[in-house]
Amino acid sequence: MATMNMIQALNSAMDVMLTKNPDVLIFGEDVGFFGGVFRATDGLQKKHGVQRCFDSPIGEAGIVATAIGMGAYGLRPVIEIQFADYIYPAYDQLVSAAARLRYRSAGDFSAPITLRSPYGGGIFGGQTHSQSPEALFTHVCGLKTVIPSNPYDAKGLLISAIEDDDPVMFFEPKRIYNGPFDGHHDRAVTPWSKHPASDVPDTYYTVPLGKAAIVREGSDLTVLSYGTMVHVSLAAALEAGIDAEIVDLRTLMPVDIETITQSIEKTGRCVIVHEATRTSGYGAELSALVQENCFYHLEAPIERVAGWDTPYPHAFEWQYFPGPGRVADAMRRVMEA
Amino acid sequence: MATMNMIQALNSAMDVMLTKNPDVLIFGEDVGFFGGVFRATDGLQKKHGVQRCFDSPIGEAGIVATAIGMGAYGLRPVIEIQFADYIYPAYDQLVSAAARLRYRSAGDFSAPITLRSPYGGGIFGGQTHSQSPEALFTHVCGLKTVIPSNPYDAKGLLISAIEDDDPVMFFEPKRIYNGPFDGHHDRAVTPWSKHPASDVPDTYYTVPLGKAAIVREGSDLTVLSYGTMVHVSLAAALEAGIDAEIVDLRTLMPVDIETITQSIEKTGRCVIVHEATRTSGYGAELSALVQENCFYHLEAPIERVAGWDTPYPHAFEWQYFPGPGRVADAMRRVMEA
Amino acid sequence: MKNRAPLSLHIPEPRLRPGDQPDFSHIKVLKAGEVRRPDINVTAKNTTDIAYSLVRVLGEDDKVHGPWDPHVDVETLKRGLRNMVVTRTFDDRMYRAQRQGKTSFYMKCTGEEAIAVSQAAALDPEDMCFPTYRQQGLLISRGYPIVDMMNQIYSNERDPLKGRQLPIMYSSKKHGFFSIAGNLAMHYSQAVGWAMASAYKGDDRICAAWIGDGSTAEGDFHTALTFAAVYRAPVILNVVNNQWAISSYQGIAGGDESTFAARGIGYGIPALRVDGNDFLAIYAVTKWAADRAHANLGPTLIEHFTYRVEGHSTSDDPNRYRPAEEAKAWPFGDPINRLKKHLIALGKWSEAEQAALEKAVDEEVRAAQKEAESHGTLGSGKLPSVRTMFEDVYKEMPWHIRRQRQEMGV
Amino acid sequence: MKNRAPLSLHIPEPRLRPGDQPDFSHIKVLKAGEVRRPDINVTAKNTTDIAYSLVRVLGEDDKVHGPWDPHVDVETLKRGLRNMVVTRTFDDRMYRAQRQGKTSFYMKCTGEEAIAVSQAAALDPEDMCFPTYRQQGLLISRGYPIVDMMNQIYSNERDPLKGRQLPIMYSSKKHGFFSIAGNLAMHYSQAVGWAMASAYKGDDRICAAWIGDGSTAEGDFHTALTFAAVYRAPVILNVVNNQWAISSYQGIAGGDESTFAARGIGYGIPALRVDGNDFLAIYAVTKWAADRAHANLGPTLIEHFTYRVEGHSTSDDPNRYRPAEEAKAWPFGDPINRLKKHLIALGKWSEAEQAALEKAVDEEVRAAQKEAESHGTLGSGKLPSVRTMFEDVYKEMPWHIRRQRQEMGV
Ligand SMILES: Cc1ncc(C[n+]2csc(CCOP(=O)(O)OP(=O)(O)O)c2C)c(N)n1
Ligand SMILES: Cc1ncc(C[n+]2csc(CCOP(=O)(O)OP(=O)(O)O)c2C)c(N)n1
Ligand SMILES: [Mg+2]
Ligand SMILES: [Mg+2]
Question: What is the pLDDT, as a whole number, of residue D177?
Fold first, then answer.
């Protein structure tokens, strides 16, 4: 057991899998000698050799395409897209190939690839280093989508993703690489070492895909969230003095419908929180699911708290970011409704 | 006034705009001499010259990219993506450039392009000639998304799209190019000439973006739909003997929230119908919007009828297609709830 | 102020349109044997002349010529001839079946049979292929049952792809034939990944991929060349330049400005341009490229210069955009006819044997068709179980798809 | 069975890593004046030798040499020198400002100043530019106020881009400077569209675009070359090969296998490779390419061979992935120093004048900085109105964005 931040936990997951399975290899822009712009692959090339962890050309389509080809061969490539904002050149390969290969070949071929990518805002990255594109993938049948919110889950989920036989989109909330940011950008950052989820085994373990975690039990309302927003929601509940049950979805596709419905049936109220732009975001699907599955238990309208429907503006980072204030307001509205 | 099917109406819209505005030009795969695989640009090259309507290389990214550059220059390119299923290579250009240009340059540059593309199933096109990707665009702020359901609207909306100063995704339900298909694939096809919306002026007119149409007034429940599914919903209401109010959204982004809320406030019940796969589809956003805006008027859970969460399978076209039977079942469930 | 002349926009146009007399006099028909054969460890730059030329082996005299003579044994040639005849016969029957309403769609490779069939002969059977929809000759050459190809085309109860794919989008891992996608070009860069994987594992299997002239405009083409060059992937990158992409002539893909083979050079990939209707030349260049790959010298780009004799698919009529009878004027002849005449010139074959072969193949294909049709045609109702529609989206079916299946009551 | 040797995967590696002695002896330093200057209506194929060579004009003796001498007047040279000095000084001040926490991010173009500045001089002021983030020299040369560049970098209340963009992502239609995107390469094919539009309208403005060596691996690079070749777009396609892409050396983009200029030839685009630290050579090749474009001869590809002297941006430390002091070993010198020495050799300039220039520029830049900072720095709270955050997503604000603005209470 060691104390790890998110980056260290992710690095450890890859280290474990490189050691365990010779069919695992890692590539992406700047991930080799340099260890990645966020250092997630730091030291892996040195330890496992240049063929196991190497730099790729700046071509996201090519990174995904070659990973698919490797997957069809029988390898389990783990690829990094440097920022989720740069995933779109690879969108065709993900949607039309990775997601469809098993189905269209009737199981003859598959693409067991794991795509890691830092996503989300809060680091003054402007509109092209801050995006949260998860809903563009949850709509694509054949892809799984995973988003961890802490080091322990990050490692366990990443190992599950690598071992999963389907293509997994693994989005890493970059704002919490180093500490559990609760949205109070004006306060000192807490490091992960102060958080219990930074206790991470050095060795192999898994956190299953498709299972949510209740990070706080409560009876007033249910918050459905993931990634950085789990911490923001926790802070908001505390500050609003609302006994919220906070569900960390962890896997968005397939989502853990049982945990969701059980919680809503208990609380009767629901706030959905994500950083992605609101319209047609993943919150829309969650809202529809809750409404369909728990209509008769709902005592108030479901609220969505999300990024505004604008690009992420550099100077207005904190006006844009759905911080604890906005989340708390939504909680109050839902309680008062 | 003439009698036109959808293809003729679209062709007429482009003809009118080529004549009216020298800054309008048309290009795409096979659209020039050949007139497009669905013949939408038939005769336009001959009439307006090779520089106004021409073939492009098979590179959807390039078609969109060059259109953006032309838009930045000051032209109003109308481009065709041969099938919506082939739009993904251009996704980066649409999301990261077309949609963002005005915002990121603070209005200095913009991309007033119109992207036309046939979409949807029902023609035994298999998984790569049947997709409905609209939700992948409604999540992208900066893009407008338009889907007509009949010849009159098709022409008027396309002219509005071409004249609009923002990039417009104009998806054409290919199953109804020749007639208003109601989902009864085993019955003879009705041609458009039997439908009042095939009365189309030869000349310039517009149908505004952002305004829905109530194609059938009713009091039992509200159907929110667009494209082919408007006709399927009409048939389903008739067959189920339900007095449904059927809203043809016409523009998905920005959506006509007033028409939607007014109708739901009247009926208290809602069925959403689209052909795209269900999870994270545009129906999710509609469901969330209805729930948020009309919670206290809702007497039953909102139902979504949509394509299954699988690729569009060639042989199972009619098992996959959300036909009038499935829509009618949902209507009955909503009425009985 | 500078006094600049106005700019003008160039839109490429094919030389001829419907109504015009077919004419290929602008194409220089090089003599067989004229092009040199470099060593396999040549630099890309030193293949420049070949990338703008045309490797040809079978001459007007039906004999082999020059340094690219691959010295193929007669048995291989006869097998090749047979596989080409099967391919053409199969195409004709299936085209007709589509016209009879037995399926939704079909695509022929008429005039291009030599490419897939000869390359299948030149590659090892274990080598991996990432084809487009016009390399049905690979499957036929590798012994995939044609009745299963038909079952796929008919989307019937025996369809190996369970009715999911458009006709001709075959897949057979066992035959080293990657699942064909409707989306053009995507597979080209995937093939490079497969080749990299094989190299990564110290395997000895190489990879080959095909793309059409029109499809080279997709970004995936560039991606494939870039990644293949950088990692020296053991892959043969084929461009089948059949002059047309649906209704667009090859100038719309840039073919008037350069050759497609020449693209490779700039990336540092040795490139060859070959007469795509010449079974022996194709065999020779493929062997050369395979030897390069096996020797860890990396990728080779091959442009096959040929002509799409028929329409693009059952969905178009080529007479709307190009002169009728143009195919007959193609100066490089017909690949089947040329190989047949070569075998006859060798004294190893006769017109009578050819007639017998064609008859035997015709019967074989008809018998297969009969068998396939006994398992159903599209719309006949003989289908795989509807339940299967919900399978294979994921390895394990998630709850929401299970619920949808239940909602459907299957 | 064949007895095949196992394959192995090649991963390119730079020659040197931190700790190694800088060494560029593998790069052949051609003498200035050695490369021929073809006529502008040359075919692509006939520029092959130049695409693998290096156009150089300024020699070791600080004099001009050979057929590429652009015969630039002294005033233009002096203006170029000044603009380069402004660019470098600006970079230094802004880099420091970032280090002082006044903004989030900065990127220098140190060592590459000649490219943007010389090309700005060679192009007409009305010609359109689609730059990357390392062509700040274009804006400076075209007289865009440096205080506005700073306002943008500080995202302050006078930021012309209203605080929306990451520092240095300038935009100025008025100065023919296309809005810089964070996403690499996208703009390269957009530039071709702009050029097509200009040709379509019979305009006389041409277009130029820039891309980095690393970014050439994106599909957009291929798209740009393909569309430019097909429609003979009046565009100058520049590749700035500064040897590095963040931590990846140019071999990861395929630079070990070929030159980047050579890519153009395969598409049928004439290509030149130029010493990117030689103001005069850059000027000459740019004029040549512009003349081609104006004469409706279509696109030209220019590779600028140079070296990224500093880190990629304020976010990385280059000493982690390459030898320290490597920049000093670059065999093609420093562009400012070389032009200065040339002017001195011409007898038109002196060290004293240079010192005076540098001092004047320093003061000018400091004054601008002071002014910009009076309007705020990032995080100072001096911002454009928050309301503007919701504007310009669409031309007219739709209801849902208006509601969100109301929800925010602004
Ligand atoms: C990404 C994509 N864009 C467009 C299409 C539509 N389409 C199918 S085949 C074809 C022409 C391809 O021409 P070419 O590459 O020359 O191959 P050929 O048909 O001649 O063998 C087109 C445009 C597609 N299938 N995929
Ligand atoms: C599509 C995309 N992928 C990745 C990145 C991240 N990124 C920013 S700059 C850069 C390196 C670019 O190198 P090069 O093209 O050589 O330009 P240089 O920085 O050397 O001027 C990378 C990978 C990006 N901005 N956009
Ligand atoms: Mg073709
Ligand atoms: Mg670089």
Answer: 98
Single-letter residue type at A194: K
A109 and chain C: CB distance < 8 Å anywhere? yes
* Tokens 């529809």 -> residue: A288
Nearest to A72 by CA among D124, C193, C397, B78: C193
Cβ-defined contact of A73 to C198 (cutoff 8 Å): yes
C217 lines ligand 1 (CB under 6 A): no
pLDDT on residue A278: 98
Report the alpha-carbon distance of residue A150 to residue A176 in Å, rounded. 8
Residue of A139, A301, A303 lying closest to B280 (CB–CB): A139
The finding on whether C182 has its CB within 6 A of some atom of ligand 1 is: yes
CA atoms of C388 and A104, how far apart (whole Å)? 12
DSSP for D218-248 reads SHHHHHHHHHHHHHT-SEEEEEEE-SEETTE
pLDDT at D1 over 60: no
Say how far apart CA D133 and CA C230 lie, in whole Å: 26
Residues in chain C: 410
Indicate the pairing of strand B144-146 with strand B76-80. unpaired
Residue B201 near residue B227 (C-beta atoms within 8 A): no
The span from the CA of D315 to the CA of D95, in Å, is: 11
Kindly tell me the sign of the dihedral angle through the C-alpha atoms of A310, A313, A316, A322.
Answer: positive
Check residue C2 and give its pLDDT: 66
The tokens describing C193, both together, are 């990944």
Closest CA to D55 of D255, D358, D300, D343: D300
The 10 Å Cβ neighbour count of residue C401 is: 22
Please confirm whether the linkage preceding A254 is cis (ω < 30° from 0).
yes
**Ligand 3 centroid to C306 CA: how many Å?**
9
Closest CA to A290 of C159, B292, D320: B292
| Residue B86 in contact with ligand 1 by CB distance below 6 A | yes
Q: What is the mean pLDDT of chain B?
A: 98
Cα C349 to Cα C75: distance, rounded to the nearest angstrom:
11
- B54·C11 Cβ contact <8 A: yes
| H or E stretch covering B273 | strand B270-277
With an 8 Å Cβ cutoff, are A58 and D390 in contact?
no
The DSSP symbol for A94 reads I
Residue ranges of chain C whose pLDDT lies below 70: 1-2
Pocket mutation for ligand 2, best pick of D135, D220, D246 (most atoms within 8 Å of C-beta): D246
Q: How confident is the model at residue D2 (pLDDT cuts 50, 70, 90)?
A: low
What residues pair up with B248 in beta bridges, in sequence order? Answer: B213, B225
CB contacts of B144 in chain A (<8 Å) are none
Percentage of residues in chain B with pLDDT exceeding 70? 100
B49: alpha, beta or left? (left if phi > 0; alpha if psi -120 to 50):
left
Q: Name which of D141, D143, D155 is nearest D94 in CA terms.
A: D155
Please, are residues C404 and B308 in contact by the beta-carbon 8 Å criterion? yes
Q: Structural domains in chain A?
A: 2-200 (3.40.50.970), 213-336 (3.40.50.920)
| Residue B315 scores a pLDDT above 80 | yes
User: CB neighbours (10 Å) of residue C114?
Assistant: 33
ipTM over 0.95: yes
Tokens of residue B103, six digits: 């915002």
* C184 C-alpha to ligand 1 centroid (Å): 6
Domains of chain D: 45-315+322-379 (3.40.50.970), 386-410 (no CATH)
Whole-prediction pTM? 0.98
Beta bridge partners of B173: B119
Is B282:B135 a contact under the CB 8 Å cutoff? yes
Ligand 1 atom closest to the CA of B29, numbered from 1: 23
Across the interface, of A95, A139, A298, the residue whose CB is closest to B88 is: A95
**Residue C46 alpha carbon to ligand 4 centre in Å:** 27
